[in-house]
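A common beginner's mistake is to predict each chain separately and then try to dock the pieces by hand. The better habit, illustrated here, is to supply every component at once so that their relative placement is modeled jointly.
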Amino acid sequence: MFGWEFPPKIYGGLAVASYGITKGLSLQGDVETTFCMPKPTGQEEKFLKIINMSQVPVVWRDVWYDYIKDRFVGHTAEDYYRFRDHLYADFNYLQGLDDMGCIGFAGGYPGNLHEEINNFSIIAGVLARSEQFDLIHAHDWLTYPAGVHAKMVSGKPLCIHVHATDFDRSRGKVNPTVYSIEKNGMDHADCIMCVSELTRQTVIHQYHQDPRKCVAMHNAVYPLDEEIRNIVPNKKKGEKVVTYLGRITMQKGPEYFLEAAKRVLERSRNIRFCFAGSGDMMNAMIELAASYGIADRCHFPGFQRGKQVYECYKNSDVFVMPSVSEPFGIAPLEAMQCGCPSIISKQSGCGEILRNVIKVDYWDIDAMADAIYSICQYDALHDYLAEEGMKEVDQITWEKVGLRIRECYNQLTSRGWFDNGDYLNAVKNI
Amino acid sequence: MVNKMMKTICLYFEIHQPIHLKRYRFFDIGTDHYYYDDYENERVINELFEKSYKPALQTMLDMIEENGKAFKVAFSISGVSLELIEQYAPEMLELLGRLAATGCVEFLAEPYSHGLSSLAGPENFVAETKRQAKKIKQLFGQSPKVFRNSSLIYDDEIGAIVADMGFKGVMVEGAKHILGWKSPHYIYSCAQDSRLSLILRDYKLSDDIGLRFNDASWSEYPLMADKWLSWVAALPEGENVVGIMMELAALGYYQPLGSHILDFLRALPMLAKDMGIQFATPSEVLAKNKPVSPLEVTYPVSWNDEERDTSSLLGNGMQREAFNKLYDENIVGRILACRDRRIQQDWDRLQATDNFRFMTTKNNGMGNNRGIYDNEYDAFTNYMNILGDFLKRVKDMFPDTVENDELNSLYTQIANMGEELNIKDNEISRLRARLKKLGSPEEEAPKEEEPAKKAEPKPKAKPAAKKPEVKKPEVKKAPAKSQRKTAEEKVKAEPKKVPAKKAEPKAKPAPKKAPAKKK
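With all components supplied together, the output reads:
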């Protein structure tokens, strides 16, 4: 499995989804996952094997075992020597090679991302030659080239997981380089797992893929830890908190949330609006709030991580995700786990599997304002959504997703070609 | 005509369409007091009329003519739909009028609003039902004798209230869980008041027509009149009353005209005659059949869904919240007390059960028609916004500090004063007439009459004139004398009420008049 993020280092939804999928698969007992990522921290959970791509050699260096044995994060020195036996070309021209013949990764999303993606793919060639596996699973476009490379080398089926497309990120104005990488990956894939039907349609229509190899594979959530469940909300009486949580960027539609906030505040002043997150539009939003004269009611606490996220949900009365285009959107599920009613845009993939949320069009700020106001105003609605939402989201588990993915794997490995018809019949019963 | 031993079909149709609410955002609260989607209302009622009501009623009219009045049918029409029909499809009233004139059609009483008032308390429920009965009498010249509640909601307490109103019978869903081993084909009596008889709906035979008629996957499809009647005829001996109840819209709308449902209906009376089955109106059924035993219904039943209870109307927290807000004791008292036409009309329209049905979260397997709403939350939000505005208007009518009892006593006071005035007016004109007769020989009389005449065109002056005398009846109904002072002050605040203080200074001329006329 090729991935870019994995907990505990979380940049966005991708890490959480990667964790869920691998965990869900690992619970089946007979699936052995090797997760290749650019820069692990060493604190990852041990249910799967992690390969640290920045410590896989691409050029031969004569290094002593004693010299390197303690330096590995992720895989071991033995793995290193095995990889070194499978070098396939001379990459001495590459910049940034270290004394072990490896290419370093900055991790995350640095400025030279395209270069890193390329390097990632080069290393994948080494891995594909040295490892034994039945199937390749690549998460998100950053790892598609690696997946394609590995497939070319090994001839094993490639399954790619579309967590987002560039159409979602850019509101239709795609970056041609990114698009070409995505398109190439999809063209070579034997199975395309999309996180929602919405994304599946994008993949089919914008990337011209065969519908038979596209599958909607909705995300799920993990049950909350004891520690998080025990967070006691710190709510002020008579005041309601409405929360937006996510990057403050065009894709997530924060300005619609602000417009709705303005309408709500015209009617009722005892509601606070919290924009948790950071992003390129943050300053613009602060300015806009000030120009509307509602800056005293809008709060920008910045990026939230780990436990803070759950504290944020617990202290909120309403969670809003006004995304313009959201492939899945795991946040509302997490909010519902914390008993916080959610309002999501109809353009969000998670809406396909959720019933006990309020869905509005992202541009319909009147409807959004109305929904926010009524949840704050009518306790019956709030309580109903909180209670039923929690029950509903408890049923959406990674175990079930793992079983569905496994079903896909079985099809891929037994036939080498993906047959959607049988697959659909098989997963219906899960 | 109605033979006691023959199997009797008691056919009854509900005619109801809610007045659809428009999209109402919370920022409209307090600024916009018009809640209805006129376009949708007109569209729906016209569509129903053209597709269903008109052909169905016309067919029934023909059937009555063809069969020499052997075909009997009953209707109940909610007050709110009558308003809709009056406004958008007046043709239908004419059709119904012609049906009423045949003498083969009975009209039933139901709550005016087609709402849940029966579950909220007797006050409003009784008032609504009487209003509905009055309207039916006005339009069709019949005073309803039999009652049916909205969605056939019934329990023992409702039965007792209905009996107290003087109705002889009530239509009840023949639900398995209230009947147990008993058969729905007998007449039962209310467990709390034996004066009231229950006619039970046979849901199987009713739904065969209303629900499954056009369902090609149903094992009995296609349903023919003789097949259906043979099921009725095959009922065990003694089980003589078959209550067939459905919405009129089932004929032609839910079951499209193309399914030949009207031909099915048309064929019934003739075939029934051959098979020894007759039709009867609910009143005729009750006249011929005595209740076999009391039927206890502890929890409300209705004809909704498989559960046949009120869960599709009041099953979730949102519906109960809306219900409690709508039927808040304080509010109901105020609305009943007020004389504001628009408030009362809005109140009728907001009560309709459909508003609650739109909020259901139950999965009944048939899909829910939610009107203009996307989902239950949308329905709840919109309804609560409208309700918020409506309740605010009701509260604004009277200051918060006024108790409902107090308001009531004020209103009875005003009503009593009005009555007294009428009596006095009559008295005055009677005396004046006598005075003319007597006074023509005398010359003094006309002089004294003049001031009286001047007073006449100002009717408002008189109420006060009699005020001192009015006090006696007041005391009976007003809870305490001490209230009167505050009461008078509050009356001043009300624009439409008789101004009490204005009247007082003019109280003086009155005593002069009275002795003058006695001469």
